[in-house]
Structures are given as C-alpha cells and as structure tokens.
Amino acid sequence: MAVSVHRMFRRPWDRWGLAFLVPGLLFFGAIYLWPTLRTIAISFTDYNLFTPPRFTGIANYATLFQQGIFLDAVKVTGIYVLAIGVLNYVLPFAIALALASGRSGQNLGRALYFLPVILPWVVVGTIWRNFYSAPGPIASLAGLVGIRYAVNPLTQPSTALAGIIIVALWKTFGFYVVLFLTGLDAIPQAYYEVADIDGASAVQRFRWVTFPLMRSMSLFIATVNFIGAVKEFDPFQVITAGGPAKATYAATLFIYETGFKFLRMGRAAAASLLLCVAIVAVTVVQFRIFRTRE
Amino acid sequence: MLAALASGAGPDIFNVGLSSMYTFAELGQLAPVTSQVLRDLGYGSEAAFKNDYIPGIIDKLTYKGRLYSLYREFNIFGLMLNKSAFKRGGLDAVKNAPKTWDELAAVAKKLTIWEGDKLVQTGMFLPSGWGSDWTFIPMQALFLQNRASVLDATGKAAAINSDAALKTFTYFCSLVQAQNNAPVKFPDDVWTRFALGDVAMYVASTWTMPLLAGQAKGDKRFSSDSFVVVPYPRLPGADRVHAPIQALVWSVNARSASVTEAWKFIQWMTTGEQAVGWYNDVGYLLPTKAMMEMGKQNADVAKFLELSNDADLLFAHPRYNEIGSAVFSAWQAALTTDRDLNAILATAAKQINDALK
Amino acid sequence: MREPGSRRWLVARILRPLASASRAVILVALAVAVIVPITWAISSSFMKKAEFVSIPTHWWPREPDATAYQRLLTEQHFPRYYLNSIIVSVVVAVSSTFFAALTGYAVSTKYTFAGKNAFFAFILGTMLLPFELIVIPLYIMMRTFNPLNTYAAVIIPGLLGAFGVFLLRQAINDIPNDFLDAGRIDGAHEVVLFARVVVPMAMPVMAALLVFTFVGMWNSYYWPLIVINDEPKRTLTLAIVYMQGFYAVDYPLILVGAVLGSVPIMVVFAFAQRFFIRSMTLSGLKG
What we know:
Strand content of chain A: under 5%
Low-confidence stretches of chain A: none
Low-confidence stretches of chain C: 283-287
Oligomer: heterotrimer
Largest interface: A-C, 96 and 87 residues
Helix content of chain A: over 70%
Radius of gyration of chain A: 24 Å
Shape of chain A: flat
CATH architecture of the largest domain in chain C: Orthogonal Bundle
CATH superfamily of the largest domain in chain C: MetI-like
C-alpha cells in the first residue's frame, strides 16, 4: 500500500509538522539510536578503548552469567527497585492523601517536601554519610527517646542497602507527593459528594472513587519511579562506593566499573543491554496492570 | 585521564597511581625511558641513573624490564605513635614501641582507656567499616611477612587463598574485633582524633604530619612534637618488614612528539629544589639521594627514608583494578560479616582468576 | 443523628479529630525529617574540624568559623566551577526547552502526518534507555567529532530530552485549535504561528521545564565525570565529587561546597516555584 506524498499530509500545513520534527528526530537518532546500535555491536566484542574491538560473539553474555559479580549486582538492583517501587509509591500516596484532606499546609508541605528533590545527589550523599555516623546526630536524637543507635548502618553489609533506600526515599518522595496531589486535585468534588450521600466510609471512598480516578497518574508515577530506580547510580557511588563488601554494588555501578575502571567495554555494553531489556519488559507489564478503563 | 588517553589527545606528561601505570604500560600508552633518553639526561647507563635513588626503589617502576615512570609522590607507610597517649597509658612511646605483632596487640590493649563506660582513648584505630583501606595498610605488611601473596610466583593465578593468607586474615580480623570500640565519629575523622591525642597508634606516611596539623588547626592539644614514627612490627622469623607503599608517578605519553623534553622536565621536577620545596609544603617525599641529604638534617625525613629501604608493593599487574577490587571486597567481607574466611578467600581467588583470563 | 453511641457520633467526635491530629503529627514529623539533616549540614559547614567531631554532637557551632567559605570561594577554581556550571546548565535548559516545544508541537494533535505516532513512540522509547547503554559510543562519538574536555562535550547529550517532549506535547494538546485556525485563515506562516501562538500559550509549562532541566543539568555529574579532564573545566557538582578526596576528607569543607553548590538551585527554584508546581497541573498528566 503505497503512501503517496499527498496522502502523507492530511492538510497543507501538516508538512510543517514534519519539518518541525526533523531537528528532534535527528537529535534522538544521533544521540540515542545510533549509540544504542553501536553498544549492541560492542557487546559482542572485546574492547578496551585503546586497541580495536575484537569480535567474540556471545562470550560477554556468557561470562556475565557465569561470574557471580554481575548476578549479585542484579540482585542488589532488584532489591532496591522493589523497595523503592513499592515504598516510593505507597508513602507519597498516603502523604498526599493526608495533605489533601486537610485545609491548611498544602502549599507549605509541597514546597518543603520538594526541597531534597532539587539537591544534587553529591550533596545529599555527603550529608547523609555524615548524618548516619555512630556516634553522631542520629545517635543524639535517638538517645533523647531512649533508643540506642550504636552502629552506622552503612558500614555493615546487612544494613547498608537499607540505609541507602532510606536516603533515596528521603530525597525523592516529595516529587511524587506533588504529582499525587496534582492528580487528587483533578478529581471533581461531585464524586465525593455522591459518595458522602451514600454514606461511604473513608476507606470505601478511596477504593471506589479516589483510586480508580487516579489511574493515569498512578501509571505515570509507577513507571517513572521504577525506571528511575533501575537507572539509579549516584547514591551507590557517592554514599558507599558499592560497599561494604559489594552490599550496595548495583548493576549500574557494575557497568561503570567494568567499562571505565576495568576497561572491559564489551562486557559493560552487554550488561547495559540486559538492563535495558529488563526495563522495557517491566514497563510493558506495568502498562498492562494499570491499563486505563474508562 | 583515561578519557584523554583514549581519545589520543592526552597530554605529554601525566601522573597516575603506580597501580594504574602497569595497565597503561601494557596498553602501550607510555614512553619508556630508553637508553637514548638516559644519555640525553646525562647518564651513561641505567645503573648510573638508579644510583641517584635509594637502592631498589626504581625497580618498582619497571614493567617487563623497561622503566616507564618516575615518582611524583612516594608514600611509605609506617606506624605513628602519639607520645602523650602512651604516657596516659603508662608507657613510653620510644621505649615501648611495639616490635612484634603480639606486642602491638598488647600495647594497643594497654592503651585503650575507659572512664566508666565512656571510651576515652583507643590504642590503635582499626576501622572495619570505612577507612578499612587504612586498616589494610598494616595488614599488607603482615601479609607479605607471612610470605602470602595475591598472585602466585608466575603471576598467572591467584594465591590469595593460601594458608599464609588465611592466617594473616584471621589474625588481623581478631585484632580489629578487639579494637572495635574506638570513639571516633567516622573513619575520616580519625586524623583529627589522632591529632588531638585520643588515638595512640595509627597509620602514618610522610604527608601525615601536615595533615594532622591541618585537621587540628588552632587546637591547643596538638603539637607536632608529640608524634614519633616507627616501622611496622615484624613477625618473628620474617626476613623484612615489607613496609607498604603507595605512589603516584609521572609518565610520558607514548604518542608525545617530544619524549626527551618530557623526561627532562619530569626529572627536573623530581630532583633538586622543586622536590624539596614540595616536601616542605605538603610532605611529599621522593626517594632520591638529594632527599637523603636533607634527611641528614631532618629526623622525620631520615626515618621515612630508612623505611624506604624495606618497602614493597602488594602486587603489580596490568589488571590491578580488577584484582585489587576482589582483594578489597574480600577484606571488607572478612571484617564486616561472619562468613567463613575460607569461603571469602575462595571467592576472591575465583574472581582474581576470572580477571586474569 | 448525633446521638452518642451511633456510628456518626463515633466518627465525628473521636475518629475525625484523631485522624486530624495524627495527620498533623505525621506531616510535621516528615517536615522535621526533611529539615533536620539539611540544617545540620548548614550549621556544620560553619564549624571547625575539631568541633565537628565532638561527641555528643554539636547542633550549633559554638565557635562559628566561616573561614572555610572564604577559603573555598577565593582559593582554587571555585568561582570558575560556578561559571562552568552556569554556562552548561543555562545552555542545556534553554535549548532543551525550545526544542521540546518545537518537537512536542510537531507530534501533538495539532498536526497529522504519516508516521507521526510512530516517531512519538520512538522518542518516548528513548526515555526507557539507561544512560549506560549509550554512554560508551557517545563517548567515542565525542572523541571522534568533538574535542573532548570542552563545554560542547558536556552540553551536547543534554540538548533535548524525551521527558520535555512528552510534557510539552501534553500541554500543547490542550491549546484550543481555534487560535491556530484563526491564524491560518489570516495566512500566517506556520513558523510565525508557532512563535506567536503556541509558545506564549505553553509558556507556563515551558518555564517549568526550563527550571526542571536547569536543575537536572546542574546536579548531573556522571557524564561530566567521564568527559572532563582538566580541573578548571569541572562543573561545580563534579568538583564536589572530587573533593571527596584521597587520604582524608574535610567534611566541613565539603559541606561548605555542598551549601554553595545548592544555593543557585534553591534560588532558581524558589523563584520559579509557582510555575513549577502549577504547571504540573496544566500539563494534563492526569489525562
């Protein structure tokens, strides 16, 4: 079915649509598509940036799965993503609901909770590295309530990841609170009035009015949150540098080190491709789950 | 640095960590000091050149028989003792300086002072969380004294799971556990603590004194006279101390158009006035004969130069980063988890062997 | 209906006030949790090192010492880092916003042409790509076409982003067609229409995107880390990363750097706060 030039544009001015699109398309093609293709190519080679790439077939992929380090890194990322995916959805939602149901403090709350979001990770990481120390500020505060805070969680492999998750939540929850508030604002008051007339309890109101009408925003937040968590690099590097004993050595850190420190670009490329595939797969699943029904 | 070299637009002269030098040399990115260069620098032979330095020091800068760099920073590590802290524990820093590892443990115990349930002074700071890289420094000495090594004699396989290595790890972990109540806030702080006299013994290198002075700036409790440097303890039966070193080196880009000029410049920087001035400013010591002259007036310099005669790298290999990462992870795991040391070392060995393939 | 004992009474007299009170408590607790680390960081930046390590923690400097600020601002290349960050962030923010508007307009419902939706899906897809995927070839590209270690190298990958395109597309979709139709009837050129109609109407969202992109670029250090070698060319955030130095770390000094590094963004943010949050409503994300 040939598309003639005349059928390509429905109206005369639609050509300009295409014209306007060209710069963007070129850009994305050059900066995203082309490098992606090259990365796919590199993933099948042995490449250390100094000597020309040497074709090795699927050796890189095989090694990734054989050597424990990559799989461990994936595990770290998996735990992190699960925790952030759930907590950074439920908590901001609850907070937004709490903020919205009152009369006062919405704007102040929004602005305040948003503050950590705009700080660079380097700053947040440095602050929290110090803040977590034992003895230190938390120990003093805990002492006021009689709790003993003896060990810096970042120094023990069993608790280091949890420590980072808390910081990540601290830093990003405000962003989602704001988004949720926006979504809540959009629900027409009429629906709530109907629910009240029917004598619905708060829980029922949420289940039958609030939540269903927030589906689009929910999907957007869940997706952005998830993708952000998988791509996360800064906190792991700045706060614990992947330690202790690789407890916070996420997949992104693995890729960075393998490529730029160990000079195994081919293997790093293979790992990042696998990461990408995982992101796409889960995103598709999320779209299915949150499918909008009107 | 990596970026610049990879792009072929790297500078003529650059400095890297000694451990990275092997990687770059292997990749052919460094211009070696050839006999032509030596002649241009005014030396008849390589032996004459080496004569300007403390014996044996320059050998560490060679890779596959060729010399690729000169020292920019040469950091030799020893043990630093705080005299007032020793006095508080009833000991004398000069007379009771520990000469064996068991002595070290005993002294550390004696110098750990509690007032009620508050820890007032710690004998030796051996952090197990961050800063465990500093804990690694004395362990490195013990490791080599035990005749353990990261790579085996051929350099082609891991040897980190040997019995000697296991023995070292076990002993050191027990030392660390015993010292785990240090009153420091976080490891980077130990310098301040050490400067103020709350820690009796710690890692030291030539840059330590200026650092301590900076950390404790203005505080009356600090005085540079209260510190003394000694070599690390020695195992009975060990042939040497194997003092650990870390170094930054100058190298010349293989693609440089003016290799000789570059080497001339490097040589100028590392000998003569500049080097001495540098030492006075930030404490960077270079193991040259010129420095040794200076050492005749400065007791500290003399001490460190003395240590330099018995210095060793943990290991050298183009894949230093990967191997080092495995070793370091094993070290952290040993200190912070309860996992069986054999298993930890076995994992490290496997990782190293993977890296060597 | 308000008889004691009925369900309504229970809710009105007990549950509702209780909920109200606990709501207040939680929100205040959160506010405290957000503020405490930040104020501690700021006050610590005014402490001498020796005071910083004292136990128990000093929440407020007893001997305030601003010399670290003085040192950092006058010494080294700190002002230069500021300049670098500003240049890079402003260029990226402006370019990104402009092209996002242009491209967003192109793929919005205002135009129809073959393949439009496919192109949009492609652009959206780039949001899914982790940066690691493209960083190596991008780096090689920089090496081949562009001298590394320049402003250009840092800026180029940031000149346009899929998020911006998505955002502006939604915003432009909401612009009533009448304006554009009227303009076309009058014979106005498409480019003029874009400049005179679309841009002004999408301005709130564009302003928000500007701020958002500025902040994002200011805070980024991964790409600059890879691409910049020379110390004077570093961006501020990258410089702070490097300050987490070698042998010992001067935390008050780093916190000073951190505070100074955050001031511009806080200023920009406070200034544009209205646009920022308001426009999230306007963007039609809920639809």
